[in-house]
Amino acid sequence: MKIFHTRKQFLAFFMPGFLLGVIYVNFIARRYVADPGIFSDYFLNQFLDVQIDVREYLWYLLRLRTVPFLVLTALSFTKARRVSVVLFLVWAGASGGILLSSAAADLGMTGCLLCVTALFPQFLFYIPAFVVLLWYCYTAPQSHWNRQKTVFVILAMSLGLITELYVNPVVVKAFLSTL
Question: Of 72, 110, 134, 158, which is the most buried if we count CB atoms within 10 A?
Fold first, then answer.
């Protein structure tokens, strides 16, 4: 039953961050959102024609996905682990709010669908890996880290990287070609 209570607490930190991201885009950064950006027709058409260098993209993804994970892992060994979980969830919520609000401002509902498509299927692996680590950080020292969690987290992060590297570009290009 404790995990259900913890998940509600995670949402209690994530959702205000999401709301802050939406408020930021709509009230504070309105001028910047109006400028052409990644959701412009030009950029989206360029993405359709781009050839991805798998080796370079892999290094980019490793930096982008594993650095926050490794920082959170390192913080899990400190007394700041609960604070780091809260800050991570607020940051993740704010990032999501900014992304979805920017996409909706430029493309409407299509922009929101593009964001969901861009997160699929890799986030089916990343989210469980991060939730296991966040749950451990938040509930430690009552919960204990073990080999099963290590194997699960490494496997989930690896599958997330592989799907983001090989499957996601195909899915996003397929979605963009229907626009």
Answer: 134
| pLDDT tens per residue across span 18-66 | 999 999 988 887 766 656 677 777 788 888 888 889 999 999 999 999 9
Query: How many Å apart are CA 40 and CA 43, to the nearest integer?
Result: 5
Helix (H, G, I), strand (E, B) or coil at 120: coil
Q: Where do the H-state alpha helices sit in 24-146?
A: 30-34, 41-49, 54-61, 67-75, 81-107, 109-119, 123-139
**How far from the centroid of its chain's Cα atoms is residue 98's Cα?**
12
Q: Which residues contact 127 (CB under 8 A, 6 or more apart)?
A: none
Enter the tokens of residue 82. Answer: 């609960």
Tokens of 145: 């880290």
DSSP characters for 36-67? --TTSHHHHHHHHHPPP-HHHHHHHHIIIIIH
pTM for the predicted model, two decimal places: 0.87
CA distances (Å), origin 24, targets 5, 85, 100, 153, 157: 29, 22, 12, 33, 30
